[in-house]
Write a structure and sequence with these properties.
alpha+beta, Beta-Lactamase, Alpha-Beta Plaits, 3 domains, 6-stranded mixed β-sheet, 5-stranded antiparallel β-sheet, 10 helices, rod-shaped, diguanylate cyclase, GGDEF_dom, PAS-like_dom_sf, Diguanylate_Cyclase, EC 2.7.7.65
Length: 317
């Protein structure tokens, strides 16, 4: 075994280093260790000198460590090779090595840094990051659920009145800014109380659900259907003039009336149509559509009525 000696001042300098410095002979035995080696491995200098370095390596890491040592001895310096060791007290440590081969001395010279605490910190940080991401995902899902609960009608799964009014305000602002047409349809189910009284509330709910499906399938992507309350519904029609909204109301009326409903038979609805006028508030606009709806019901139901901004200008069908 080659004994490696240094001048006293050299040993003092090497012992001041926080990184482990060691020299290993061709047989893999320690021939020199500095003070940091004692601290890192937990063995005294006397216990380490002459001991095969591979004996300290965890069994799972020994094969790759031998392969790395072979490359070093063949003249290929190794930078940042990482492996694990078992200290004298049994604790496992993780080291990052830089090593080279001295052909003249026939030894490997290695410098190692203890990465154990850093690895643990990295793992703890990764765990904390993962936990934070999970918490953020859960929070996002909870927010989405709350948003859905706040904006969706639980029976029909369409937008509720609160959501409709928010969207309507947005559409009013857009129409006012760009000078676009904007219309609304209010409609309700004719004689719905009689349906509930005769067939029960479960059948009544099925009628409501079926109507929202029929109407929803025949609207544009930009349109919005909402349950206004009870058996009353609202449709907002962006970039749609009054005449086109009236055609849509008649189309929806026929879709509901012309196909019988399970258990109930024919169901009809009445419609009120109004186009938003510049400077008109949401309440005023909806009031005009509501007045048109009641005019349609007064005219015999199963019809639509259009609000117009002139006396006696309502059109009934």
């Amino acid at each position: 075994m080659i004994q490696t000696t240094h001048r006293p001042w050299e040993n003092e300098v090497l012992d001041l280093l926080l990184d482990a410095v060691c020299i290993v002979d061709a047989e893999g035995r320690f021939t020199y260790v500095n003070g940091a080696c004692e601290t890192i491995f937990g063995y005294t200098r006397e216990e380490l000198i002459g001991q095969p370095m591979i004996d300290l390596v965890l069994p799972e890491d020994r094969e790759q460590t031998k392969q790395a040592a072979t490359k070093v001895m063949e003249g290929t310096p190794t930078l940042r090779f990482e492996n694990r060791y078992r200290r004298k007290d049994g604790r496992i440590i993780e080291l990052s090595w830089t090593a080279s081969w001295s052909e003249s001395l026939g030894v490997r010279i290695g410098v190692a840094r203890d990465m154990t605490e850093r690895k643990r910190a990295d793992e703890a940080l990764a765990d904390a990051k993962e936990q934070l991401e999970r918490s953020n995902r859960s929070l996002q899902e909870a927010n989405e659920m709350l948003q859905r609960l706040a904006t969706t009608d639980h029976l029909t799964d369409i937008e509720n009145r609160w959501s409709f009014e928010n969207r309507a305000q947005i559409e009013i602002s857009r129409a006012q800014r760009y000078g676009e047409h904007l219309s609304v349809i209010l409609f309700d189910i004719d004689h719905f109380k009689a349906i509930n009284d005769q067939f029960g509330h479960l059948i009544g709910d099925q009628v409501i659900i079926e109507i929202t499906k029929r109407v929803g399938r025949n609207l544009r992507m930009v349109d919005m259907l909402a349950r206004w309350g009870g058996e009353e519904f609202a449709v907002i029609l962006p970039n749609c003039r009054l005449s086109d909204a009236a055609l849509m109301a008649e189309k929806l009326r026929a879709l509901i009336a012309d196909e019988a409903f399970t258990h109930v038979g024919q169901v009809t609805s009445s419609f009120g149509v109004a186009e938003w006028a510049p400077q008109e508030s949401l309440d005023q606009w909806i009031k005009h559509a509501d007045n048109a709806l009641y005019a349609a019901k007064a005219a015999g139901r199963n019809s639509f009525c259009v609000h117009k901004d002139r006396p006696n200008g309502a059109h009934e069908s």
